[in-house]
Specification:
- The complex is a heterodimer of chains A (about 140) and B (about 400).
- In chain A, helix 3 runs parallel beside helix 7.
- Chain A is globular, with a radius of gyration of 15 Å.
- Chain A is mostly helical and about 140 residues long.
- Chain A is about 55% helix and about 10% strand.
- Chain A has helices at about 5-15, 20-35, 80-90, 95-100, 105-110, 120-125, 125-140; strands spanning about 50, 55-65, 70-75.
- The mean pLDDT of chain A is about 85.
- The radius of gyration of chain B is 22 Å and the shape is globular.
- Chain B has helices at about 10, 40-50, 65-80, 95-105, 130-140, 155-160, 185-195, 205-210, 240-245, 280-295, 300-315, 345-355, 370-375, 390-405; strands at about 20, 25, 30, 90-95, 115-120, 140-145, 165-175, 200, 220-225, 235-240, 260, 265-270, 325, 335-340, 360, 360-365, 380-385.
- Chain B is of the alpha/beta class and about 400 residues long.
- Chain B has two domains: about 10-30 and about 300-405, Aspartate Aminotransferase, domain 1 (Alpha-Beta Complex); about 45-295, Aspartate Aminotransferase, domain 2, CATH 3.40.640.10.
- Chain B has a seven-stranded mixed β-sheet, sandwiched between helices. A four-stranded antiparallel β-sheet of chain B has the order 13-14-17-16, covered by helices on one side.
- In chain B, helix 2 packs antiparallel against helix 10 (about 280-295), helix 3 crosses helix 10 (about 280-295) and helix 11 runs parallel beside helix 14.
- In chain B, about 50% of the residues are buried.
- In chain B, strand 5, helix 5 (about 130-140) and strand 6 (about 140-145) form a beta-alpha-beta unit.
- The chains are: A mainly alpha (about 140), B alpha/beta (about 400).
- The interface between A and B is medium-sized, with 16 and 17 residues.
């Protein structure tokens, strides 16, 4: 039985498989970013900033009463926002154990967005995934 | 139009990397202002040095040591000729232009203190800002900044008004890496010299696009890097007028930069060796020499005409695009197009252009104060080099129009 994250990834893969060339995929990524709830001005603060270079990335992590992690994120660049929307669709509302068991890089490979997580310095997305995992580790340790 | 004297296809054949594809498309490399690709002459000179004659320089009496020392010093002479320095000893090899400016800040700057002023501008690259910030913290000097006009030029009247009796140094870009603005070097050097100040030019971009004569512009210091000049990374040059260099204290200490060492004291070598502590970047220096010799063999006027024609072709191709904002439109500017696409982040633009095989820079271009001046957090930059073609310029315009379609 695949994990809840794996099931959501399968659905995302199906969604992307309906798309044709890279242009359609990127358009879809940009659309996903447009659908992402933006963070407030106050939440776009240095404390929530994830190391990036060309664009800025913010991440807010919260814990629900039933031990799940809520992630919200934002960026000033469209494609990065879209990639964040994908990352959040996979990670948001999971338990720390589920977060830590999941391989985001392999997921992006399956979505035909390989490379999106590799240029660490330039887009901050890999750093965001690192931060999500760090927060999950900290939460698991505290529990 | 490009003159018949300039054969861009022949030039391209000398750059092996230009054969490759990116994302299934032919590479269109428009990021040469960040770092240029290397011709075979440079690659082969470096390989030949490692394969045929390599040893440490300036020490040892064996054949390889002598041959390598000669090759290293020949490279220095080539770099000196390239900017028309009066003598090879006026060229100090550094890690790059950044290190060259840090060297000046740490030696020339060591003698400055409260009350002394350094005149800079808002257009400068961080390499020509941060070393002076550090000096201000360490020595209490005052920094003064000339503003930038809406066209992306340094306001020359304001700059000259800042130069006064307390000015010790004017440190200015010779050509902006963002707006392409070209400084009237001799004019500002004369203004600095009139009050007894020294002048340093950041020549990283300028030396690539036009012949530079450090004597004609009366520079005291002139810095540039190898890797933007079709040479290797890890090597650059500080030109310093002989009397100016001779007067500077040493910077880093170590081997190579001394005349004699005892346990009680040291006497230092003469320039340029005084400023080249430790084993230098020997292979890179040889590659640097090969690069400037290679470039000097080309028709530089024809190259400048070619690069300007490409820039003009792109600007004309994008004429009327109300979604495009160009940062830097000063007359006579170099072939650099920095721009914003309405509704898109520069990061989006660069990432999508890459899918079309087009490499551009996105970000602050190491010039955050200038970005702030233009009211943007980042921008994209296409820079044109001698190996770019008209077909590439057209493909870039078409790709950029497609990219804009994602955000329309």
């Amino acid at each position: 039985m695949p994990s809840p994250i794996e099931q959501d990834l399968d659905a995302l893969v199906d969604e992307f498989d309906l798309l044709g060339d890279w242009e359609e995929r990127y358009r879809h990524v940009i659309d996903l970013g447009r659908g992402l709830e933006p963070l407030s001005e106050a939440e776009r603060c240095d404390a929530n900033k994830v190391r990036g270079c060309a664009s800025q990335v913010w991440l807010v992590t919260e814990r629900t009463a039933d031990g799940r992690l809520r992630f919200r994120g934002d960026s000033d660049a469209h494609i990065v926002r879209g990639l964040i929307a994908i990352v959040l669709r996979l990670y948001d509302g999971r338990t720390p154990e589920e977060v830590l068991a999941f391989d985001a890089r392999a997921a992006f490979d399956r979505l035909g967005l390989a490379g999106s997580l590799s240029s660490q310095r330039s887009n901050g997305l890999a750093a965001m995934v690192e931060r999500i995992r760090r927060d999950a580790r900290a939460d698991a340790a505290a529990a | 139009m490009t003159g018949p004297a300039f054969d861009v296809e022949a030039i391209r054949a000398e750059f092996p990397i230009l054969q490759r594809q990116v994302n299934g498309k032919p590479l269109i490399y428009l990021d040469s202002a960040a770092s240029a690709q290397k011709p075979r002459a440079v690659i082969e000179a470096m390989v030949a040095a490692m394969e045929g004659s390599y040893a440490n320089v300036h020490r040892g009496l064996h054949t390889l040591a002598n041959e390598t020392t000669e090759a290293y010093e020949r490279a220095r002479a080539a770099v000196a000729r390239f900017v028309n320095a009066a003598a090879p000893d006026e060229i100090v090899f550094t890690k790059g232009a950044t290190e060259a400016i840090n060297l000046v800040a740490a030696t020339f700057g060591r003698r400055l203190g409260p009350g002394d002023e350094i005149v800079l501008s808002e257009i400068e690259h961080h390499a020509n800002l941060v070393p002076w910030h550090i000096l201000r913290q360490a020595r209490g000097v005052t920094l003064r900044f000339a503003p930038v006009t809406e066209e992306g030029a340094v306001d020359l009247d304001a700059l000259e008004a800042l130069i006064g009796p307390r000015t010790r140094l004017l440190a200015l870009t010779h050509m902006s890496n963002v707006t392409g603005w070209i400084a009237p070097a001799r004019r500002v050097a004369d203004a600095a010299h009139a009050v007894g100040a020294h002048v340093l030019f950041d020549g990283c971009q300028a030396v690539v696009h036009r012949p530079v004569d450090v004597q004609a512009i009366d520079a005291d210091f002139y810095v540039f890097s190898g890797h933007k000049l079709y040479g290797p990374t890890g090597i650059g040059a500080l030109y310093g007028r002989a009397e100016v260099l001779a007067d500077l204290p040493p910077w880093q200490g170590g081997g190579e930069m001394i005349a004699h060492v005892s346990l009680d004291g040291v006497t230092y070598a003469d320039p340029p060796h005084r400023f080249e502590a430790g084993t230098p970047a020997i292979i890179e220096a040889i590659g640097f020499g090969a690069a400037v010799e290679w470039l000097s063999r080309q028709d530089r006027r024809a190259i400048e005409t070619h690069e300007q024609a490409l820039y003009r072709r792109v600007v004309d191709g994008l004429a009327g695009a109300n979604w495009l904002r160009m940062l830097g439109v000063s007359p006579g500017k170099g072939a650099i197009l920095t721009f914003e696409v309405a509704g898109a982040h520069a990061h989006d633009v660069a990432q999508l252009l890459d899918r079309y095989g087009v490499a551009v820079r996105a970000g602050t271009h190491c010039a955050e104060p200038l970005m702030r001046r233009f009211g943007v957090t980042s921008s994209a930059r296409a820079s044109f080099a001698l190996y770019n073609t008209e077909a590439e310029a057209d493909a870039f315009v078409a790709a950029l129009q497609n990219v804009q379609g994602f955000f329309a």
